[in-house]
Design brief:
This protein is α/β, with parallel strands linked by helices. The chain has a domain of about 150 residues: TIM Barrel, CATH 3.20.20.210. About 50% of the residues lie in helices and about 10% in strands. It is built from 10 helices and 5 strands; from the N terminus they run αααβααβαβαβααβα. The chain has a 5-stranded parallel beta sheet, with helices on one face. Helix 2 crosses helix 3. It is globular, with a radius of gyration of 19 Å.
Length: about 220
Protein backbone atom coordinates (compact mmCIF):
# COMPACT_ATOMS: atom_id res chain seq x y z
CA UNK A 1 0.00 0.00 0.00
CA UNK A 2 1.34 3.40 -0.98
CA UNK A 3 0.57 6.60 0.89
CA UNK A 4 0.81 10.19 -0.31
CA UNK A 5 1.71 12.87 2.20
CA UNK A 6 0.36 16.28 1.25
CA UNK A 7 2.72 19.22 1.39
CA UNK A 8 1.84 21.67 4.21
CA UNK A 9 1.59 24.81 2.13
CA UNK A 10 -1.94 26.21 2.01
CA UNK A 11 -3.82 25.76 5.26
CA UNK A 12 -5.02 28.74 7.28
CA UNK A 13 -7.74 28.74 9.93
CA UNK A 14 -8.28 32.46 9.45
CA UNK A 15 -7.04 35.53 11.34
CA UNK A 16 -10.00 35.77 13.74
CA UNK A 17 -9.95 32.08 14.68
CA UNK A 18 -6.19 32.02 15.28
CA UNK A 19 -6.44 35.20 17.36
CA UNK A 20 -9.24 33.67 19.43
CA UNK A 21 -7.10 30.56 20.00
CA UNK A 22 -4.45 32.88 21.44
CA UNK A 23 -6.65 35.25 23.45
CA UNK A 24 -9.75 33.20 24.17
CA UNK A 25 -13.08 34.97 24.42
CA UNK A 26 -11.29 38.08 25.71
CA UNK A 27 -10.49 38.74 22.07
CA UNK A 28 -14.02 40.07 21.62
CA UNK A 29 -13.55 42.44 24.54
CA UNK A 30 -10.39 43.62 22.76
CA UNK A 31 -12.43 44.19 19.62
CA UNK A 32 -14.62 46.77 21.39
CA UNK A 33 -12.32 48.20 24.06
CA UNK A 34 -8.93 48.14 22.26
CA UNK A 35 -9.68 48.22 18.52
CA UNK A 36 -6.11 49.21 17.45
CA UNK A 37 -4.64 46.24 19.35
CA UNK A 38 -7.30 43.91 17.95
CA UNK A 39 -6.57 45.05 14.41
CA UNK A 40 -2.79 44.80 14.80
CA UNK A 41 -3.08 41.29 16.19
CA UNK A 42 -5.17 40.04 13.27
CA UNK A 43 -2.92 41.75 10.74
CA UNK A 44 0.19 40.30 12.42
CA UNK A 45 -1.25 36.78 12.26
CA UNK A 46 -2.27 37.08 8.64
CA UNK A 47 1.07 38.55 7.60
CA UNK A 48 2.92 35.75 9.38
CA UNK A 49 0.82 33.04 7.75
CA UNK A 50 1.28 34.64 4.33
CA UNK A 51 5.06 34.61 4.79
CA UNK A 52 4.97 31.00 5.98
CA UNK A 53 2.80 29.93 3.06
CA UNK A 54 5.01 31.68 0.51
CA UNK A 55 8.20 30.14 1.87
CA UNK A 56 6.72 26.64 2.12
CA UNK A 57 5.65 26.89 -1.50
CA UNK A 58 9.18 27.83 -2.49
CA UNK A 59 10.71 25.08 -0.34
CA UNK A 60 8.60 22.46 -2.09
CA UNK A 61 9.31 23.92 -5.53
CA UNK A 62 5.87 25.39 -6.11
CA UNK A 63 4.81 28.82 -7.28
CA UNK A 64 3.61 30.87 -4.28
CA UNK A 65 -0.11 31.64 -4.36
CA UNK A 66 -0.55 30.21 -7.82
CA UNK A 67 -4.11 31.21 -8.72
CA UNK A 68 -6.77 31.83 -9.47
CA UNK A 69 -8.46 29.99 -6.56
CA UNK A 70 -7.60 30.42 -2.90
CA UNK A 71 -8.92 28.73 0.22
CA UNK A 72 -9.61 29.80 3.78
CA UNK A 73 -11.36 28.81 6.99
CA UNK A 74 -12.34 31.20 9.78
CA UNK A 75 -14.86 29.47 12.03
CA UNK A 76 -14.87 32.24 14.65
CA UNK A 77 -16.77 34.62 12.36
CA UNK A 78 -19.86 32.66 13.39
CA UNK A 79 -19.60 34.65 16.63
CA UNK A 80 -19.80 38.02 14.86
CA UNK A 81 -22.73 40.06 13.67
CA UNK A 82 -22.80 41.01 10.01
CA UNK A 83 -21.84 44.60 10.88
CA UNK A 84 -18.90 43.47 13.06
CA UNK A 85 -17.70 41.09 10.36
CA UNK A 86 -17.75 43.86 7.79
CA UNK A 87 -16.00 46.30 10.11
CA UNK A 88 -13.28 44.06 11.52
CA UNK A 89 -12.59 41.01 9.34
CA UNK A 90 -13.89 41.32 5.78
CA UNK A 91 -10.96 43.37 4.46
CA UNK A 92 -8.51 40.81 5.83
CA UNK A 93 -10.35 38.02 4.06
CA UNK A 94 -10.30 40.02 0.84
CA UNK A 95 -6.56 40.55 1.22
CA UNK A 96 -5.96 36.84 1.82
CA UNK A 97 -7.82 35.80 -1.32
CA UNK A 98 -6.24 38.58 -3.39
CA UNK A 99 -2.89 36.85 -2.99
CA UNK A 100 -4.24 34.26 -5.44
CA UNK A 101 -6.51 36.51 -7.47
CA UNK A 102 -9.21 39.07 -6.94
CA UNK A 103 -11.71 37.34 -9.23
CA UNK A 104 -11.39 33.82 -7.82
CA UNK A 105 -13.42 31.64 -7.73
CA UNK A 106 -12.43 31.05 -4.10
CA UNK A 107 -13.51 28.59 -1.43
CA UNK A 108 -14.07 28.65 2.33
CA UNK A 109 -14.80 26.25 5.19
CA UNK A 110 -16.97 27.55 8.03
CA UNK A 111 -18.16 25.48 10.99
CA UNK A 112 -21.21 26.55 12.95
CA UNK A 113 -23.90 28.82 11.61
CA UNK A 114 -22.00 31.48 9.73
CA UNK A 115 -24.51 31.44 6.89
CA UNK A 116 -25.52 35.09 7.45
CA UNK A 117 -22.04 35.96 6.14
CA UNK A 118 -22.28 33.78 3.02
CA UNK A 119 -23.83 36.45 0.74
CA UNK A 120 -21.07 38.91 1.70
CA UNK A 121 -18.31 36.36 1.08
CA UNK A 122 -19.87 35.39 -2.23
CA UNK A 123 -20.38 38.94 -3.48
CA UNK A 124 -17.32 40.71 -2.09
CA UNK A 125 -14.69 37.93 -1.91
CA UNK A 126 -15.85 35.91 -4.94
CA UNK A 127 -16.29 32.76 -2.86
CA UNK A 128 -18.05 30.17 -5.01
CA UNK A 129 -17.56 27.08 -2.82
CA UNK A 130 -18.76 26.78 0.80
CA UNK A 131 -17.95 23.81 3.02
CA UNK A 132 -20.57 24.08 5.76
CA UNK A 133 -20.91 22.80 9.30
CA UNK A 134 -23.89 22.72 11.66
CA UNK A 135 -26.42 24.16 12.19
CA UNK A 136 -27.51 25.71 8.90
CA UNK A 137 -30.76 25.91 6.97
CA UNK A 138 -29.69 24.37 3.67
CA UNK A 139 -32.61 25.66 1.65
CA UNK A 140 -32.23 29.19 3.00
CA UNK A 141 -28.52 29.16 2.18
CA UNK A 142 -29.25 28.16 -1.41
CA UNK A 143 -31.84 30.89 -1.78
CA UNK A 144 -29.46 33.47 -0.29
CA UNK A 145 -26.47 32.81 -2.54
CA UNK A 146 -28.09 31.41 -5.68
CA UNK A 147 -27.83 28.28 -7.81
CA UNK A 148 -24.31 28.82 -9.20
CA UNK A 149 -22.46 28.36 -5.89
CA UNK A 150 -21.06 25.01 -4.79
CA UNK A 151 -22.16 23.95 -1.29
CA UNK A 152 -20.91 21.02 0.79
CA UNK A 153 -23.04 19.85 3.72
CA UNK A 154 -25.23 17.18 5.20
CA UNK A 155 -26.47 15.44 8.36
CA UNK A 156 -25.15 16.56 11.73
CA UNK A 157 -22.25 14.50 13.05
CA UNK A 158 -24.09 13.88 16.33
CA UNK A 159 -26.91 12.22 14.40
CA UNK A 160 -24.50 10.14 12.33
CA UNK A 161 -22.75 9.02 15.50
CA UNK A 162 -25.72 8.34 17.79
CA UNK A 163 -28.87 8.20 15.67
CA UNK A 164 -30.50 5.25 13.97
CA UNK A 165 -30.06 4.44 10.30
CA UNK A 166 -33.68 5.50 9.66
CA UNK A 167 -33.09 8.85 11.36
CA UNK A 168 -30.02 9.43 9.21
CA UNK A 169 -31.97 8.52 6.08
CA UNK A 170 -34.83 10.85 7.00
CA UNK A 171 -32.50 13.75 7.79
CA UNK A 172 -30.61 13.26 4.54
CA UNK A 173 -33.90 13.28 2.64
CA UNK A 174 -34.98 16.46 4.43
CA UNK A 175 -31.78 18.19 3.37
CA UNK A 176 -31.98 16.99 -0.24
CA UNK A 177 -35.59 18.23 -0.52
CA UNK A 178 -34.88 21.62 1.10
CA UNK A 179 -34.05 23.33 -2.20
CA UNK A 180 -30.29 22.95 -1.73
CA UNK A 181 -30.01 20.92 -4.95
CA UNK A 182 -31.19 23.77 -7.16
CA UNK A 183 -28.59 24.40 -9.83
CA UNK A 184 -26.87 21.04 -9.43
CA UNK A 185 -23.99 22.23 -7.27
CA UNK A 186 -24.61 20.50 -3.93
CA UNK A 187 -22.23 17.86 -2.59
CA UNK A 188 -23.57 15.90 0.36
CA UNK A 189 -21.25 14.91 3.18
CA UNK A 190 -21.31 14.97 6.96
CA UNK A 191 -21.74 18.43 8.47
CA UNK A 192 -18.08 19.28 9.08
CA UNK A 193 -15.99 16.21 9.99
CA UNK A 194 -16.81 12.52 10.36
CA UNK A 195 -16.11 11.44 13.96
CA UNK A 196 -14.63 8.07 14.91
CA UNK A 197 -16.96 5.09 15.51
CA UNK A 198 -19.82 6.20 13.29
CA UNK A 199 -21.86 3.03 12.61
CA UNK A 200 -21.38 1.79 9.07
CA UNK A 201 -25.12 1.33 8.64
CA UNK A 202 -25.62 5.07 9.23
CA UNK A 203 -23.21 5.93 6.44
CA UNK A 204 -24.94 3.39 4.23
CA UNK A 205 -28.28 5.04 5.00
CA UNK A 206 -26.98 8.47 3.97
CA UNK A 207 -25.49 7.01 0.79
CA UNK A 208 -28.67 5.07 -0.02
CA UNK A 209 -30.82 8.17 0.38
CA UNK A 210 -28.47 10.13 -1.86
CA UNK A 211 -28.70 7.46 -4.57
CA UNK A 212 -32.48 7.39 -4.35
CA UNK A 213 -33.20 11.11 -4.01
CA UNK A 214 -30.00 13.05 -4.66
CA UNK A 215 -29.10 12.41 -8.28
CA UNK A 216 -29.17 15.11 -10.95
CA UNK A 217 -30.53 14.76 -14.48
CA UNK A 218 -27.90 13.84 -17.05
CA UNK A 219 -26.19 16.95 -18.34
CA UNK A 220 -27.04 19.19 -15.38
CA UNK A 221 -24.10 21.20 -14.10
CA UNK A 222 -23.04 19.44 -10.90
CA UNK A 223 -19.32 20.06 -11.11
Amino acid sequence: MRFRICQPTLGFDGPLTVAMNLRGIELFTDMYEYPPYFRRLLEFIQKGVSIRTRELHRYFGRTPFEGPSGGLADDAIALLSVDSYRQHVLELHKAWYAQWSVQGPHQIHLCGDASRHFPILHKECNVFSFDTGFPIDHGAVRRAIGPDVQIFGGPEVSLLLSGSAQQVYDRTLQILQSGIMEGGRFIIREANNLPPNVPEENLQAMYKCCLEHGTYPTGENNG
